[in-house]
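dumping this here so i dont lose it again. seq + smiles for magnesium ion
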Amino acid sequence: MAQRNIVEAIRDGLAFEMERDERVIVLGLDVGKLGGVFRATQGLLERFGPERVVDTPLAEGGIIGCSLGLAVSGLIPVAEIQFLGFTHQAFHQIGPQLGRYRFRSRGRYHAQVTIRAPFGGGVKTPEFHPDAVEAQFVQTPGIKVVCPATPHDAKGMLLEAIRDPDPVLFLEPQRLYRKGREEVPDGDYTVPFGKARVARAGFDVTMIAWSAAVEMCLQAAEDLQREGISAGVLDLRTLVPLDVDGMVAEVSRTGRAVVVHEAPLSAGFGAEVVATLQEEAFYSLDAPIRRVTAWDTPYPPASLEGWYLPTVRRVVEAARRTVAA
Amino acid sequence: MAQRNIVEAIRDGLAFEMERDERVIVLGLDVGKLGGVFRATQGLLERFGPERVVDTPLAEGGIIGCSLGLAVSGLIPVAEIQFLGFTHQAFHQIGPQLGRYRFRSRGRYHAQVTIRAPFGGGVKTPEFHPDAVEAQFVQTPGIKVVCPATPHDAKGMLLEAIRDPDPVLFLEPQRLYRKGREEVPDGDYTVPFGKARVARAGFDVTMIAWSAAVEMCLQAAEDLQREGISAGVLDLRTLVPLDVDGMVAEVSRTGRAVVVHEAPLSAGFGAEVVATLQEEAFYSLDAPIRRVTAWDTPYPPASLEGWYLPTVRRVVEAARRTVAA
Amino acid sequence: MRRILDPQGNLVDGAQPRLSLARTVEGLRWMMLSRAFDARATALQRQGRLGTYSPVKGQEASVVGSSLALDPATDWIAPSYRELPALVRHGHSLERIVAGYMGKVASSGIIEGVNVLPNQVALATQLQHASGLAWGLKLQRKPGVVMAYCGEGAASEGDFHEACNMAGVRRAPIVFVLMNNQWAISTSRELQSAGEFYRRAEGYGFKGVQVDGNDLLAVYEAAADAVERARAGNGPTLIDCVTCRLSFHNTTDDPGAYLPDGWLERAEREDPILRVQTFLAAQGLWDDGSRVAVEGEIAEQIDAAVQAASAMRTSRAADVFENVYARPPERVRRQRDELLRLAGGS
Amino acid sequence: MRRILDPQGNLVDGAQPRLSLARTVEGLRWMMLSRAFDARATALQRQGRLGTYSPVKGQEASVVGSSLALDPATDWIAPSYRELPALVRHGHSLERIVAGYMGKVASSGIIEGVNVLPNQVALATQLQHASGLAWGLKLQRKPGVVMAYCGEGAASEGDFHEACNMAGVRRAPIVFVLMNNQWAISTSRELQSAGEFYRRAEGYGFKGVQVDGNDLLAVYEAAADAVERARAGNGPTLIDCVTCRLSFHNTTDDPGAYLPDGWLERAEREDPILRVQTFLAAQGLWDDGSRVAVEGEIAEQIDAAVQAASAMRTSRAADVFENVYARPPERVRRQRDELLRLAGGS
Ligand SMILES: Cc1ncc(C[n+]2csc(CCOP(=O)(O)OP(=O)(O)O)c2C)c(N)n1
Ligand SMILES: Cc1ncc(C[n+]2csc(CCOP(=O)(O)OP(=O)(O)O)c2C)c(N)n1
Ligand SMILES: [Mg+2]
Ligand SMILES: [Mg+2]
């Protein structure tokens, strides 16, 4: 066992799987000699050569569309989109193509493709780089959408994603890339999709989040603790598949929930979480579920992101109100 | 006053506004001589000439991206995307560009662009033609998303959209294009955005929908009436802006609601409706709000759409359960 | 514009057909099958037995001539939606194609071993898949060549550019066949682009050629050269097949609303089938007798396909959930159960 | 590749510069301002006073030479994010640019009357806007020409293709300036495309030219021709400026990780500023005295801009909601109130 942060865990996972399965290839912008703008693919070119680690022309639609074809040819592409905000350029090739190829071909073909993309704010990046548009991919069935929040999950879920015959959008929290290290097994292990993780147990209220927002909820839980409020944190881990039973179980215990995400409020994935909970746990809810999210405005320049993103303070306030209600 | 169906109302609205304001131009695929695949622009080329009614090259990103530039030049483009499912090809130019241009330019420029697009199922169209992806555009602030369900609203909301300085995605229910006629004023009138319409009053349960699903709810309400259940129907009309107060007022009266849409369940706009209602009307809800939607699968071939889309039967069942709960 | 056989069915001066006479007869048969199937499918659609149908009429030489250069055992076809004879010649079964138009989801797939990608409705997206497929074959040292089809309208999409550029950089074994049939629904070729399509290839670093797309022999020659080039590791080719759509865009379209007067009449003089028949007749390889015989065989072949397709099971509720995921989310499984309940369990 | 001034600062045989000597001095001044600003901005970024910054270093001749052909009163610039001297020369204020890098949202807009579009982070999307703008000017019989910039990497995006094709069909008054600086972050020009960029224009039905992008006089000549062509109603031009990025991609980048040994040294011999200085010196229009004087003026100009920007108000919470909608949805208004409450009312 070694101590790894999220970038190291991903790098280790990629190298491990490329070693284990020679059909796996990595492609994207600057993934070769540079090792990716976040160095997540560092060392892979030297180790696996330019046929399996490919710097592509600058076209996200081409990266994804070609990945589908590469998969049909028998390879297992792991495509990197430099930032999730640039999946917009490939939008027509993700849900409508990767996500439907098995269905369209009546099962003859499928797109075993993993799309890796960093996202999320708080690190003063330029426009588009922080956009949290995960919910947009949940409306195009056929794609799985997963978002690890810890180094251990990052590697385990990456291996699960690469081996999943279904296409997977693998979202990486850039803010946490180098935040902290934890024990990450060297060898083979996977973290199954569709099982939420209790990041912190709590009795008064359940805070539900994914990716970097999990960390914010954990901080909020600390503050709430001091006020005598016992707040639990549930890390959804995967949006598709969604662990409905896991969410319901947690929230039924506390009767209260707050959902936190970095995306704008309207039609964010938080809405799906709330809608599902009130459908499945209506009678155990003691208070309205609140959402703490970014505002319904474009992601602003870095100087304003502190006023745009959810904050520990807002999460704490929402939890307080929910408990008091 | 004349009797018009939805296509006629849109055609009348386009002609009226082009007559009134010479900055208005229409562009898209086959909008010229053919008059659009649904004939919504029929007669405009003859009347306003090829400089104001333009058949563009086959590129949705170009249609939208150029519309932004045309707007900056001082014109008011009304762009037709042949089917909403093909906005995927222009996704990067809609929310991230049209929707943010005012913000990015600090107010110096804005994109007074209306995007018209037919959508929705039930008319046995090929793949992509029926896709209901409206929720995806609600996650990119800056764009308004409107979906008239009647001829009167179609013309009034179209004029409102063209005159709105903000970019508007104007969704047209292809299934209802020629369904029925109603009184549509000849001259000038607008239907303001953000005010839901009570399509039918009811006391036991409120069915909430938009676009073609409104008609399905009205049919369901008829059936429920026979069972002695008084079901109201609220037509949201616009998703952005969302009439939160209007929804809350209706649902607070009945204490029960069912949301119906043609898009897949997960992260569909119905989730936003439910989440908002339980936040704002929690204490007046007597039963969980149910969603009746398409399944979380790709839109299937026409032979299967009857099993894919919500049906009157499913809406009636959901309403019954909600009332009984 | 390369031409071997003129509209009157004569070889242009000095032209040496690369397609043998025997294979020219084979090509003619495929073209005639396509033409007959268009008529039959259109009739069935009008009777409400088939869904929306897009005929190949007028473009048979481009579709058949290009696909004749492929070896179905190793090579691949990435179709748009108007290349039926190429798919059948490549091994895709006509009855499954008919079943697809009949909405029989479960019976319409491409069977294992037939190297054909599914028809693509989202224009030009298939070109990206084709470039990736060709690149993947090359990486795995597999022998195949990919032939990707798109219309001159689809070629305006960004995907066309990205796919060509990627294929050029990777020197992928691919042939882009641009079916330049003069129309994108009602949009004329002039409104589609101010340039010649074949010249785009130069910008991507590979060869572009323009051929008379109504000339089976010219199309075959260009395709054979391109396939050879790809097989030899010399990268992609773009073939601009200048042809004519001699029919409506699809069964929902009314060309009367936009075709200029006389356009269709002029275009019909270019009919790709007639000229091959005249040419073969001059070689003593074609006459009324052979025509009647071939038309008879084709009619039987189509009848058989339609009958077989009619006998296949119609789609049932459960098909909505088939082949969506290899590992469906629990939530989707529950939705399937709910649908089966509604459908009374099928 | 068209070249007028060689790397040693000599006119190539028979070359007649179209840019007057006086304007060449003006051009040199803009290039030097750009070079000096890059150094200053980088230093300020390192001190944490500016956000991510993308220098123009090495590409000054391409940016300045092209924009010198524009009339700021009627013409437009659609920038990518690396064209600072063109924007300033066109009338955008340096202090507002600095304010933008300082994150001062409210003070960083382009003032009314300055025909410049905002910098664009989403590569190549601005080309579509530029084509639409040029087309719109033409439709309204306005005199302007649009100059749109993108890198050779951005030119791989589908938007490049769609924008060029649309501009070609509309014969829009636009000049596409492709800043071919050999790198897209760490991706080399070879991996970007197998073709020559200027040849793409032929496929869209307009003229493409390749120039030495490190030669102010050659770039100006090509741009002046292109602008003339556009003004005369003869449509678009694509100018492939072959130049070198003599710096990191931006302040977050480390070229040491990927630049081949010696690449930078070789590239530096192409320095576009040196050769103009040598050329003007030979004409007796430049010497150490003038250099020192100009450098002094420039330093003052930059100091003034940085000071003015520093004095502008920093962004406040309410700016998050400014200029999002002309008519904000009620829900957004309420969110704004909530934020102001959190921010204690500003
Ligand atoms: C991305 C996309 N946009 C629009 C359409 C609607 N559409 C279907 S066929 C067609 C015209 C295609 O013309 P062309 O590419 O020339 O092919 P042809 O039909 O002539 O064979 C259009 C606009 C589509 N299917 N996909
Ligand atoms: C659509 C999109 N994809 C990816 C990026 C990330 N990115 C920013 S700059 C850059 C390289 C651009 O290279 P080039 O177009 O040659 O311009 P240069 O930086 O060399 O001036 C990349 C990949 C982006 N900003 N937009
Ligand atoms: Mg065509
Ligand atoms: Mg570059």
